[in-house]
Amino acid sequence: MRKSLWLPLPLVAVVSACSMAPAYYVPTTPAAVNFKEEKGWAVATPLDREPRGDWWKSFNDPLLNDLEARSEAASPTVAAAVARYDQAVALADRAGAERLPEVSIGPSIARERVSAGRPLSSGSSVTYTDRTLAGSFDWEIDLWGRLRGAARAGRADAAASEADLASVRLSLHAGIADTYFRLRGLDAQADLLLQTSKAYARAFELTDIRHSGGIASGLDTSRAQSQLSDARAQLATIALDRANAEHQLAVLVGETPSTFSVPAAIPDIEPMPIAAGIPSELLQRRPDIAAAERRVAAANERIGVARAAQFPSLTLGLSGGYQSTGGSLISAANSFWALGPLALLAPVFDGGRRKADIRQSRAVFEETAADYRSTVLGAFREVEDGLAAAHHLADAEREQDEAARASARTTELALIRYRDGASDYLEVVVAQTASLLAQRTVLTLRTQRLQTSVALIRALGGEPHGQYSANLK
User: Fold this and answer.
1) What is the CATH number of the domain that holds 89?
2) Does residue 321 belong to any structural domain of this protein?
3) Residue 437 forms part of a structural domain
4) Burial of 385 from C-beta contacts in 10 A (0-12 / 13-18 / 19+)
């Protein structure tokens, strides 16, 4: 009997090595050999699992470095992502544990009295203490790979959650850098408007003196006052925008806006040129692409799990221990054991439930594969957008800087003509308005270039140390 029970086990081991999941291939996506906007960019070859490093330190701003470091420990967004990753790892561990036997052991004690009128009774009641020390062994033999497929799917889910965590961290650091540069751009505009207001105030004083002496008209005085008030109004608007940016930065760092502040400053920060690499490397670099691909792999494994559920399941059980109502508990005479049951349970009729599960798992796979392709295409678009913005904003800033210098010269000439009585104050107002707009546009473009550097780093999935390129000016 014992021989007939154990002979099939080698065959069981061979059968249990199979898998019902389809052969897995990463979904294909259209990709070019090079980025369309790549001209002049050096090639970099980082991978998704390589450390991205503290890329923001390349901007050489100590305060930005401090804010980025503080955010890692205090951000509730990162804390939530870490918790989700821990959940995924725990679920993967549990799915893996399902493949192993379950062993349990435990003592029990009970005081019992049996009736004198019980069947097969000797005519008297009996009171006794039942002491038991027993253990059990239960194991579902994974004939068709259902448990192994579930374990592989759990590991893929955990890897996807790990990539999600990397995406959250990348987004957090990029968001802090983007907001910080916007705040510094507002500081530069506030300084410009402050200096402009002082210049307008001097011009107003000059116009008022000329008006008192009968040289200038009241219309000139009104225009000068309007210019001054408008500049001060713009300064107040910039102050509001800066307050909002500072509050947003506080939340990103994980601090309360009411206790958080960033001193006004105009640091000399240059946009950072970045090595874009080639499109195929982007698939290895972006954590959101890695997460999407792992979810496709998990969905593929769950097709095998659903398929395997159509076939019989085999469960092996063992139990044994000691039982006694008196004297020594652990002795050969008090031992008991049972081998089995060796249960083979085959589905016969389920109304189509298992077939529906297979169709659902296939549909989930198709959905996740489509999501993967969408993520890849979106990543390519973001990189192309970033490369195009880096090129064209640099050109725009150069031209706008020249326009600002020309507007400043025009303003100086207009003031000279006004002092000499060759024109009225309207010419000065037009020149000052154009000059202020040109200078503010230069500052806006500089801020946009800094933000584009950050957006491109984010689009590329982060940049490891040593992957920055200085060959694009």
Assistant:
1) 1.20.1600.10
2) no
3) yes
4) middle
Q: Where are the alpha helices (DSSP H) in 7-117?
A: 9-15, 62-74, 76-97
Q: How confident is the model at residue 437 (pLDDT cuts 50, 70, 90)?
A: very high
Q: Is the pTM of this model over 0.90?
A: no
The span from the CA of 103 to the CA of 189, in Å, is 71
DSSP 29: -
Closest CA to 171 of 32, 262, 266, 291: 291
Is the pLDDT reported for residue 242 higher than 90?
Answer: yes
Residue 25 has pLDDT above 50, yes or no: yes
pLDDT category, 45, cuts 50, 70, 90?
Answer: very low
**Domains: count for the chain:** 1
Contacts 24+ apart (CB under 8 A), 218-222: 219/424, 219/425, 220/424, 220/425
Cα torsion 422, 427, 431, 436: sign: positive
Q: What angle do CA 67, 69, 70 make, to 5 degrees?
A: 65
Q: Are 21 and 300 in contact (CB under 8 A)?
A: yes
Which tokens sit at 383? 């990189």
In what helix (H) or strand (E) does residue 113 lie, and over which residues does it extend?
A: strand 102-114
Residue 152 lies in a domain: yes
Whether residue 61 is contained in a domain is answered as yes
Which among 91, 117, 469, 145 has a CA at the least distance from the CA of 300?
Answer: 145
CA atoms within 13 A on the CB side of 407: 20
pLDDT of residue 285: 77
Is residue 201 classed as helix, strand or coil in its secondary structure?
Answer: helix
Q: Residue 232: pLDDT above 90?
A: yes
175, 189, 186: which is closest to 249 by C-alpha? 175
**Distance in angstroms (rounded) separating the CA atoms of residues 231 and 223:** 12
Give residue 237's domain range. Answer: 23-106+135-259+268-311+347-459
pLDDT at 466 over 60: no
Distance CA 454, CA 177 (A): 7
